[in-house]
Amino acid sequence: MLQTLVQLSITPKYLFSNLIEYLIFHKFTPLKKQIIPDIKIINEYKLNNQQIKVIKEVIQSLQENKPPITLVHGVFGSGKSHLLSVLCILLASLNYKVLICASTNVAVDRVLESLLTKNYKSFFRVGSLKKISKQILPYTISENDDGLNDLKELKKEKLLSNIEKIIIENEINERKTGNFEKRSREIKLASIVGVTCASSTNPLLNHSYDIILFDEATQTIEPMSLIPILRFNPKCIVCVGDPMQLDPVLQSVHLSASLFQRLYSLNSPILLNLQYRCCPPISNIVNRLYYNGLLQNAPNVYNQLSLIPDANEIIICYHDTNDEFSLASSYYSLFEIRVVNQIISILSHLLIPSDRIGVISFYKQQCAYLASSISLPQITVATIDAFQGAEKDIILLSFVRNKHSSFLESPKRLNVALTRARNNLFFIIHKSILYHPFIQNILLNSKVSYIDCDLLLLSKKFIFD
After folding, report:
1. Helical H runs in 71-161?
2. Which carries the bigger pLDDT value, residue 257 or residue 463?
3. DSSP conformation class of 199
4. Strand 330-333 relative to strand 324-327, pairing
5. Beta strands in 375-420 (DSSP E)
6. Residue 170 domain-assigned?
7. Is there a domain that residue 198 lies in?
């Protein structure tokens, strides 16, 4: 990152591309070019009006008729990954080279997985095999050697599904037979490549890209975003993110701002405010608290009813057990771990598939204990930061703390937590936190079902107050 800043400071002005000049001096001179986008591709993937507007702006930026930066403020569940994957397919059809970047491997892989759902496989992923989605491994070039050692380590993981085991075994055989070298040559010709900002210095990526798509751009500090921009000198960039969700993790006074944040005041972002994820009882809460009523519900979410018989979509499991512990600057609650496992057991008896359930918490230690105690490998357990961008039909949110909680001072993190569930959101929460004014404001005018955790553990079924 330091090398990037040094490079920027010593680069002569006459070598700046239109993009770099715009980033630094905010100058832009439009040209008159015209490229006709492939309307068939746009229609095939059923984009809404705002998503189509993004596509058109990007095309105009590539034509140099508009500034070389497109900002997209996409709320939760607004189809950001879907939009980026369609944009990739369209740009590849127009012979542009596209680089997908983000600060995390999860964000990069999410866009590539969206390409796979469209049966589009003409892409490559560069990075550490240990950190990349198993689905993406067949399209990956390791940033170290041929990646065999990493693959053999991955094969030893206990919680792999049968499909993941087959993918890893096939990948080991591919690399043993020398197809890795072939893939290394092919990456130079690839129209679409995915990489984290930190790994964009990889020597395998020794050619230019016409456009860089930054996903979760509000989570990436500006100097990190500049690494691929300065290395590949693209014609334009697209920054997609939600300023109302998580900020960059690095909270240095001078480095905590994202490129998205700086450009937000200079460019009018395109707002994707139609959300396709959360049922209205959940989306209405965050619309009131975070989005000033701008959020709209897509028609499909009105059919996303509670999966729990006789219960509302939001279910509060309350307790007054004081068993909060701290370890390595994190916290955990053994009582809430018992409650979470009991809820999972009941959901299993209700024949709800385990891969439709997610368990999240604000604290790493709680997630570590939860992951080791839950016997069903298909259930995703993660911190809220790690779960950003993901979604499940049912989310169990373990609050852990029984006193003042730091998450109450982090409304953006709580926004992420509230917007992961499609059908049902469980709070496992101590009474002292439940009655905190901030939590009460969340539940204001909401239809909520309540369960006593002690009764839940005794009865082994949902008994609502």
Report:
1. 80-93, 105-117, 148-155
2. 463
3. G
4. antiparallel
5. 380-383, 392-398
6. no
7. yes
**Do 377 and 321 share a structural domain?**
yes
Identify the three-state secondary structure at position 299: helix
Instruction: Give the model's pLDDT for residue 355.
Output: 95
Give tens-digit pLDDT for 393-418: 999 999 998 876 666 778 899 999 99
Q: What SS3 class is residue 14?
A: helix
Do residues 132 and 140 touch, judged by C-beta distance below 8 A?
yes
* Closest C-alpha among 346, 324, 308, 310 to residue 425: 308
Q: What are phi and psi of 153, to 5 degrees?
A: -70, -40
- Long-range pairs, 124-128, Cβ under 8 A, ≥24: 124/183, 124/186, 124/187, 124/190, 124/192, 124/193, 124/194, 125/193, 125/194, 125/195, 126/187, 126/193, 126/194, 126/195, 126/199, 126/202, 126/204, 126/205, 127/194, 127/195, 127/196, 127/199, 128/199
For the stretch 295-352, pLDDT in tens is 999 999 999 999 999 999 999 999 999 988 888 888 999 999 999 999 999 999 999 9
Contacts of 103 (CB under 8 A, 6+ apart): 196, 197, 198, 216, 219, 220, 221, 224, 248
Side by side, the strands of the sheet bearing 380-383 are: 380-383, 357-361, 392-398, 421-430, 314-319, 448-452
The 8-class DSSP code of residue 217 comes to: G
Looking at the fold, whether 263 and 317 belong to one and the same domain comes out as no
Q: Which residues is 6 bridged to in the sheet?
A: none
Q: Are residues 239 and 93 in the same domain?
A: yes
Q: What residue type is assigned to position 258 of the chain? A: S
321 lies in the same domain as 256: no
308 & 425 share domain: yes
Question: For residue 21, how many other CB atoms are within 10 A of its CB?
Answer: 15
Query: How far is residue 239's CA from residue 220's CA, in Å, rounded to a whole number?
Result: 10
Number of domains the chain contains: 2
What residues contact 195, with CB distance under 8 A and at least 6 apart?
99, 100, 101, 108, 125, 126, 127, 202, 205, 228
What is the extent of the structural domain holding 441? 302-458
Other Cβ atoms within 10 Å of 115 Cβ, number: 24
Distant-in-sequence, close-in-space partners of 388: CB < 8 Å, separation ≥ 6: 216, 219, 245, 246, 416
Quote the CA–CA distance of 344 and 392 in Å, as a whole number.
14
Contacts of 251 (CB under 8 A, 6+ apart): none
- The answer, yes or no, to whether residue 14 has pLDDT greater than 50, is no
Q: Residue 333 belongs to what H/E stretch?
A: strand 330-333
* Residue 318 is assigned to a structural domain of this protein: yes
Sequence-separated (6 or more) residues with CB below 8 Å from residue 351: none
Mean per-residue pLDDT for 175-181?
A: 55
Residues 263 and 321 in one domain: no
Name the helix (H) or strand (E) containing 270: strand 270-272
